[in-house]
Structure formats: structure tokens, C-alpha cells
Amino acid sequence: MDSEMLTSSEVEEQIPSDAVVEEGQEGDEVQSSGGERTDGTTAHASEQPAIPLRDIGNQATWKLSTWKPGFGVHALLSESTDSYWQSDAPQPHHIDIHFAKRVEIAKIMMYLDYRRDESYTPSKIAVFAGSGYHDLHEVLSLGLEEPVGWIDISLAHAGKDGFLKAFLVRLSVLQNHQTGKDTHIRGIKILSPDRQANDIDDDGLPFNSIAFLAHSTIR
């Protein structure tokens, strides 16, 4: 099938709005520093400040270039990595993530499993960004070699302060392993800096409510 779309309100059941993912979380097969990764990909040197990250995928409208029945957006955004998006057309395959306002993006995390998916597993991907379809431009391209687990795609190089700023992000699958045609992606997260979580005092209590600010002036 062609062009399945899911709005942000429909996505909320798939990804909790308060989900926070810390960098280097135990069990995640990620590496945010530069150099060759264990999955064969090359990471960009991270220049992002050390602040918590949260998944903002539930704020977006998601659109797939193609999909097989039962293997669309809901399967892609499921919390279970046993489900997956499966494309249904010649390459390239696209995932479009459209936000109503410009957002900051620190990294994209994508779950791939070569052991289960073999020729359906992407071997080359690219990330595009812009304010809309008219000005999409390539941010990076990445080679993958038999990846298994969460793939960490750092966007630290894409902005002056270490974050990509965009309304629209497109993830494109350009090639598969073993010259496969269709692709499987078992999960995806769009991670943004959680500035509210970082705005706390030394006791770990936030003092940014309207009630507090109303009484914060020295008289």
C-alpha cells in the first residue's frame, strides 16, 4: 500500500509523552562519540551538551512511502521490537516525520535486526531535513553492516549548538543487505533535549511554575 499517515494524536498510544531516554542507557547498543561503531557504522563526534533527552515522536505526523497491510506506522511505533514496518515498493523507502513547529533533534535511534531480517535490513540510510518538502536537504548518510539493536544516529554536527532544527525530517532507506528490495525497521525514536528536566535546583526540585514566579520578585 502507498503512503500511510498517522497523526500525533494517534501516535500518543504508541509512545508515552513523558518518555525520557538518557544517553548511554544500559542495554542500548549505542555509541555517541566519534569513530567506528560496533555495528559497523561511523558515528559523528558529539558536541551536544550533557542534558536529558526525550522522545518527541508523539508530537509528529508520520507518513510512510509504502507499507504492507498490518506492517505500517502502528507496527513501526510499537514498543515491541517484534513488530516492524515493511515497505512495499522499489527503493528508496521513506519515513517522513512532520512537526507542527520547529523542533530541536539531538539524535534518531532506529532498531534493526539483521539476524531476523537478513536481506530486509538496511545497509545504507540517509537523513534529510527542512521546513517542508520544498527545501529538504541531506543532513547525513550512513552505512550499516549487519546491525542488531538500537542504532544511534547523532545529529550533533547538524547545528551550531549541537542540535538539528527542523519542521520535517525524512529517513530514507537507500540500500538493503544482500540486494534486498523491501525493508524492515523495528522501531524508531526522535530524541530532543528535555530542557524542562534540566531546569532544576540543587535539591532536584523545579522552580519554574507560574505560582512560584509570581512570588519570586524581591520587594
Could you walk me through the main structural features you see in this protein, from its secondary elements to its overall organization?
The protein is mostly beta strands and 219 residues long. It is 10% helix and 38% strand. It contains five helices and 15 strands. It has helices at residues 8-11, 73-77, 114-117, 195-198, 210-214; strands spanning 5-6, 20-21, 35-36, 42-43, 53-55, 60-64, 85-86, 93-105, 107-113, 122-130, 137-143, 148-154, 164-176, 184-185, 187-193. Strands 1-6-8-13-10-11 form a six-stranded antiparallel sheet. Strand 10 and strand 11 (137-143) form a beta hairpin. The longest helix is centred in the middle third of the chain and has 5 residues, at 73-77. It is globular. The N and C termini lie far apart (65 Å). Residues 8-47 have low confidence and may be disordered.
Q: SS-based structural class?
A: mainly beta
Biggest sheet strand order reads 1-6-8-13-10-11
The global form is globular
**What average pLDDT do the residues reach?**
79
Number of helices: 5
How far is it from the N-terminal to the C-terminal residue, by CA? 65 Å
Runs with pLDDT <50, length 5+?
Answer: 8-47
Total beta strands: 15
Radius of gyration: 18 Å
Share of residues in helices:
10-25%
Beta content comes to 35-45%
For the largest beta-sheet, the strand count, sense and barrel status come to: 6 strands, antiparallel
SSE succession: EHEEEEEHEEEHEEEEEEHH
